[in-house]
Amino acid sequence: MKKSKIIFDAERMKYPHTGLYHFCLNLGNAIVDQCPKDKELFFYLNAKMPKIFGPDRQYIDQYSLQKFFMPRLRNFSIWHSTFQLTSYLPRHKSLKVVSTIHDLNFLKEGKSPQKIEGYLKKIQHTLDRADEIVAISNYVKRDLEDYCDLKGKEVSVIYNGNNIDPNLLQNLLTGSSPLDQDYIFTIGTVNRKKNFHVLPYLLVGNDLKLIISGIVHEPDYHKKIQDIAAKLNVADRVVLTGPVTEAEKYNYLKNCALFVFPSIAEGFGLPVIEAMSFGKKVLLSKHTSLPEIGGKEAFYMESMEPDDLMDFGKNKLMELINFPSKEKEIKQWASQFTWQNAALQYWDIYNRLLK
Hints:
By secondary structure, the chain is an alpha/beta fold.
């Protein structure tokens, strides 16, 4: 029997330490694990990268010239595009396209009208080519409905899964804390939309440390965080680690007193679910998708104004940290977000297109 062939676009994995890298890695593994015998899955991966999904998987090499000259791919049925601003889409309409849209964060990042128009035009091109559209949260779905022309196409919502590897986690259960005092922790690309510069204000009036991990995308913003910490006389309690390994991240999550995530532009917020899977209390901004993802088991910042944050640090932060644990309830909330669940829903979409 002839097998249907599906291509999973993992081109963005050429940029490590990013949310898209982990999205492709975890969803790709879950989808291939659930691949039926009458289907074949191929990974579209940069030719210079190691075969990250394993030597026994099937690959199609990605080259930059394919932005202009895509291979014909005549014998394939579905192309799963995992990046909304992609330059890589199949030419022939006979090849069905599933498009995952992660966010329209550029609308909230203070970009120029010209840049916003350019991004919207590129996303519109992706939507026009798509036969099935997936948003990673209801918040993203609403943005698509408000700012794009869906031309009557429905948008499915499939939540991301949790990136925590239980095998690696098991090896860390007896690990010691990376610091000798209590700390609050956050992780993500260090850029303006993550809003990390508000966090040093929370250190005023207490003895906590702040750990910020993640690749530095905007060096001037990195310096802004350090300058604010120095102005507040808390610079000795603010640590920017740069990118960390998965094991290091797990250790920070396991031992932190509180996970904080003040992002103002977030399509989903994977670090929030990772922290909650450890049973950790999380303090989030009330912007974009975070109230949807954190739900009723999260705490939220009512204000991002410096005076309000300092007052919170002096009078409420330790009270929140010492608040009776709801570890069981927090873990239960996080447990609904799995890559296995996401993969099953994507297979439903693939099968619908193949019919």
